[in-house]
Design a protein that fits this description.
The complex is a heterotetramer, with 2 copies of chain A (299 residues) and 2 copies of chain B (270 residues). Chain A has one domain (3-294): Aldolase class I (TIM Barrel, Alpha-Beta Barrel). Chain A is built from 9 helices and 16 strands. Chain A has helices spanning 75-86, 102-112, 135-139, 141-154, 170-179, 218-231, 245-254, 264-267, 271-285; strands spanning 3-5, 8-10, 14-16, 38-40, 57-60, 63-66, 92-97, 120-124, 159-162, 184-187, 191-194, 196-197, 202-203, 209-213, 236-239, 258-261. In chain A, the strands form 4 sheets. An 8-stranded parallel sheet of chain A has the order 3-16-15-10-9-8-7-4. Helix content of chain B is 20%, strand content 33%. In chain B, helix 4 (159-162) links the parallel strand 9 and strand 10 (168-172). The longest helix of chain B is centred in the middle third of the chain and has 18 residues, at 122-139. Chain B is an alpha/beta fold. Classes of the chains: A alpha/beta (299), B alpha/beta (270). Chains in contact: A-B, A-C, B-D, C-D. Chains A and C meet through strand 11, strand 13, helix 6 and helix 7 of A and strand 11, strand 13, helix 6 and helix 7 of C. The complex binds flavin-adenine dinucleotide (2 copies), flavin mononucleotide (2 copies) and FE2/S2 (inorganic) cluster (2 copies). One flavin-adenine dinucleotide (FAD) is lined by residues 42, 54, 56-59, 73-75, 77-81, 120, 123, 225-228, 261 of chain B.
């Protein structure tokens, strides 16, 4: 079941989606982190971020909206506490990085260079919940290419650029990331949505809009992974609404080398283990030598 | 046994105890039952319908250590709670728990504790009343529990059960029973004396309670509500504003599902 | 409950979404068409279209994908049979128009000028299932503006431009339609998705991708209606995942003057009537003088 | 009464008659029951789970005009049919019907009709066998029904019921019962004579049946399957390729849910 992305080998293709698993501390009561392909940590910035006012989450049909606004304790505390916690586990650690400005992204990446526990970096240029930055980089090909190459220059770890689905052509952005020297891309981040409380006649989320995730977005995510995989040679980490092994296999057939499980953790804290088990079964049933034999075979 | 689990529990009882208010008793297996349950803690109850994926946070209204049964009392407000009313004895329901931090029983033992429950805020205080009495007896101390319960109308669900543990004062919005007004009006009208307050209810009430505790200079614990996704502390959806920087977040936010739902009133900005 | 869009008054804001109601013939066994605000007919082209190979539909979590490919009998038969059928009903008739090229759009519009039963035209520049045209117009502001003004010039009926959600900024396209002289805009069309049969390892739809509709897309649709309403002064017809009165009210609070019910008809052929009844109740409960009093009040 | 409705029906019986094959009997109210049901027609059965919104097309396997009960026999293949197996007597289920065009009974009366049912294609032919016999008796004509049923294994669901209406020939993929092979192998091996064929089963079988009918020069009706959304003719999701331009579509497409699911084999390209 092992897969290799940008030279980093993981036991299996199943990772956690950033922001839905903390740094693994809480869910380690439910699943053995040693069984996961990788733990992808919550977005971290150079200094602590407060995030958005509450309400920050809302349920929608077959999914949820979130507008956390990237609350995080900052890279210093993250490195001392969360990376330290992860030292005890035999899994890959992918650190998700956020920032308002180019400088902020670069300073986080720089700080993480000293940390041995970081196997890869995932750059969130696609968070829809931060006003000043983030999403801007993610929707403009030239800006995306530029920031990718700047990060690439200073990072010793492989760099994964995480793309937003809120664009006309995800293929174009995948190409921009590739041109900037990304080692891999991941997609999709959440799709911007809105919920209104019709009785009180106001927005459910304090932030008005939020990012939608969960099984409701899965078919859109599969399509985008397929489009991206058709456009670039980079390995792809597919996510969006994966809640069982079938969804994960679908992503891989569409072109993903690995997958990440997000909001499904909230529905079932054991889900990552179940996805791994189900994929192992599938590989047996279809007599696959390697699970990666199915990656992108539908073209 | 792990502290937190998602388990399929069996429904033992499901009855409507007031209009739109239901009492649901769930059975744990002896082998997988939680070791300890602190009043004020809650569980996440999962709807079955695939359109509704998030757990519904519901406070623990009763915990029977011997029978391993959990009692929840909830009001029907939307699709999830409406779905729960269709549960019948023998049905299975998925429950995430035990979640959150409850009341500080040690700090309440031997004191004159005032419980303030507004509407559907009453249920968690029932288990609290029971446990304070138990702790007082165990410790041989003579603290007391006075419960002030606010209702909309004369459907005084749970109030008789509260009276097992001490005096009960009723306030109703429509004035049909007890004091005409809210729980704070009742405290003033009855001129109650107390050393500590534990309160659960709607936000405007909690603000009033916090002010009351400051006025009287007594310790005060509040059970807060916030929209949740994970219920276990990872999503950061459910934060409350804290007066000081929080140890976990490094900002003035504490997770209601993890550091709460019970907070010392002095620690939160509400 | 009446609303007026571009001078056309409808009994209530509830319409059918194009392609999900035929021309009303079939569903007239279930609902009284006289009760509907408007019947919006299936996309019609200048000549009969065959559409895509089957499978053309697939169920997805909380919704469906379709890749019908705009099969239709052509405007001649449509006018003689479908418009004739609609003559007997006291409802508004909005004809949805499709084409591969500018000329094809214009020839359909021209042919419909003679038809008295046509109250408005809805121009589908956003169908994701037609290879040669359609979607191109819908994603490029200048092309959208151009075709809008050309249609506007020859049409005596008010022209509604129907926008695609598969874009980075729906506001930009709404502005382009406005600049081209559109009388109204409608959104959203379906969101492109994909489903893969993991056991047979092939695409479920013959067309590979399909347009996603149903409650799963509703929060995205509400957000886009809100964005469009914030960008233009045109009246907006909101759709996407509406399956009850609450969803419809949400759309109006977000900025829609009227709403259309699509895939929900397949789940419940009586749904349009239920939406109308539920909205009437809401208007009473909230003591609204006119249902339009809530349009876009959340800004 | 309208011809098509979406109604909530009561489950009368739900039993597994072979591994993964279930018989479900549903009760209509007398007042809202369909006036006529033609064999070959189908209904759309709605799952309850909010993740699954489309009706599942299931053929009518039995219709009791007096009791107003509908019998469906289905195989569990995915989430919707799996959900149906949890239905118990007394439960409610939403059904869209009666849908589609069935077999042309008039054309089959007084003839030697060969029914070819492959696997889960058999159910609609059972009601057809019953009705052909009935029509023959009514008309006092001596047509006959011979049923050739193909199964994977020796779980010969429904075959005994078919034998009430005429001879039954069995074919099994694994050769455990009857002819080793498919229904067409069985027709050849048993050297059957007939004037008309009605067939339902997987597409490769139907192609073989069409070829057989051309070879023998007999009329042939096929029950086609296609992915559906609306089930009533509006979405154009379910089309079959026709040999001639279709009156409704003006192209070579006919709607399986409306013009079908039963087609004259000569009219469709399969
Ligand atoms: C710690 C805690 C303890 C609670 N204890 C109880 C209790 O003992 N009895 C009781 O009746 N209610 C309690 N509530 C409120 C209860 O969680 C909601 O009424 C319930 O989730 C509504 O679900 P629904 O599907 O019926 O409503 P919907 O409005 O359809 O729910 C939609 C979403 O919003 C969430 N939501 C809606 N209302 C609330 C709310 N007030 N607080 C948090 N989330 C909400 C739901 O969980 C769901 O994710 C508690 C809430 C919290 C946070
Ligand atoms: C006219 C007609 C009559 C039928 N009669 C019977 C019958 O009598 N007994 C029986 O067991 N089956 C019958 N089928 C097939 C039956 O509809 C499918 O097996 C069923 O819809 C599968 O649903 P699911 O949720 O279990 O599977 P899933 O694969 O989870 O369903 C996903 C979607 O695909 C559709 N789908 C899946 N398989 C088929 C299929 N073979 N044909 C059409 N749609 C499909 C479902 O309706 C649903 O929309 C009939 C199909 C048609 C078109
Ligand atoms: C509560 C929540 C917080 C998230 N935080 C982040 C984040 O910090 N950085 C990031 O790149 N993506 C974040 N995401 C997006 C997820 O990583 C993922 O891309 C998205 O949710 C789609 O996957 P899913 O449908 O499986 O949840 C967050 C998602 C959720 C639901
Ligand atoms: C089967 C089907 C066919 C459709 N055909 C058309 C069409 O011909 N023209 C068009 O503009 N939109 C078409 N649509 C899009 C709908 O009108 C609507 O914009 C979309 O489905 C979102 O609404 P819903 O979620 O309520 O279905 C079609 C949708 C479906 C499901
Ligand atoms: S609900 Fe997720 S952190 Fe509290
Ligand atoms: S299923 Fe919609 S036309 Fe047949």
């Amino acid at each position: 079941m092992s897969v290799t992305i940008a030279g980093v080998t993981m036991k299996n293709p199943v990772m956690t989606a950033s922001g839905t698993f903390g740094s693994g501390i809480e869910y380690s009561e439910f699943v053995d982190l040693n069984h996961l392909g990788a733990v992808v940590t919550k977005g971290v910035s150079n200094v602590p971020w407060e995030g958005n006012p509450v309400p920050r989450v809302a349920e929608v049909y077959g999914g949820m909206l979130n507008a956390i606004g990237l609350q995080n304790p900052g890279v210093e505390v993250f490195a001392e506490r969360d990376l330290k916690f992860l030292e005890d586990f035999d899994t890959r650690v992918i650190v998700n990085v956020c920032g308002h400005t180019e400088e902020e992204y670069l300073s986080v990446v720089e700080r993480l260079q000293e940390e041995k526990r970081v196997d890869m970096l995932e750059i969130n240029v696609s968070c829809p919940n931060v006003k000043q930055g983030g999403i801007g980089f993610g929707t403009k090909p030239d800006m995306l290419c530029d920031i990718t190459s700047k990060i690439r220059k200073i990072a010793r770890q492989p760099v994964i650029m995480k793309l937003t689905p809120n664009v006309t052509s995800v293929a174009e952005l995948a190409k921009a990331a590739e041109a900037g020297g990304a080692d891999a891309i991941s997609l999709i981040n959440t799709i911007t949505g809105m919920k209104i409380d019709i009785e009180r006649q106001r927005f459910v989320l304090a932030n008005r809009t939020g990012g939608m995730s969960g099984p409701a977005i899965h078919p859109i995510a599969v399509r985008m992974v397929y489009e991206a995989a058709s456009a670039v040679k980079l390995p792809i980490i597919g996510m969006g609404g994966i809640s069982n092994a079938e969804d994960a296999i679908e992503m891989m057939l569409a072109g993903a080398t690995a997958v990440a499980v997000g909001a499904a953790n909230f529905h079932d804290p054991y889900v990552t283990q179940k996805v791994i088990d189900g994929m192992t079964d599938y590989a047996k049933r279809h007599s696959l030598e390697r699970i990666t034999d199915i990656v992108g075979i539908l073209r | 046994m792990r502290v937190k689990t998602k388990q399929r529990l069996q429904v033992r009882e499901s009855i409507e105890i007031a209009q739109g208010v239901w009492s649901l008793v769930l059975q744990y297996d002896a082998g997988s039952a939680p070791d300890t349950v602190v009043p004020g803690q809650f569980v996440g109850v999962y709807p079955r319908d695939g359109a509704r994926l998030l757990p519904r946070p519901i406070s623990i209204c009763g915990w029977d250590e011997k029978d391993h049964t959990l009692r929840l009392v909830y009001r029907v407000v939307g699709g999830g709670t409406r779905e729960f009313t269709t549960l019948a004895p023998g049905d299975a329901v998925d429950v995430l728990g035990i979640l959150g931090n409850g009341y500080d029983l040690a700090a309440l033992t031997g004191r004159r504790v005032l419980l303030l429950g507004g509407g559907i805020g009453a249920p968690p205080l029932l288990e609290l009343a029971k446990r304070i009495q138990l702790e007082n007896r165990k410790a041989g101390r003579d603290g007391s529990v006075t419960s002030v319960l606010g209702y909309r109308t004369n459907e005084l669900f749970l109030s008789e059960e509260f009276s097992q543990y001490g005096p009960v004062v009723i306030a109703t919005d429509d004035g049909t029973v007890g004091v005409h007004g809210n729980v704070i009006d009742a405290v003033r009208e009855k001129n109650l004396s107390f050393d500590a307050i534990c309160a659960c209810g709607p936000m405007p009430m909690l603000r009033g309670v916090k002010a009351l505790s400051e006025e009287r200079g007594v310790s005060c614990w509040l059970s807060l509500e916030e929209r949740m996704a994970c219920g276990v502390g990872v999503c950061l959806g459910c934060v409350a504003k804290t007066t000081k920087k929080n140890a976990h977040s490094k900002v003035n936010n504490a997770r209601v599902c993890t550091e709460g739902p019970v907070f010392n009133a002095a620690d939160v900005e509400i």
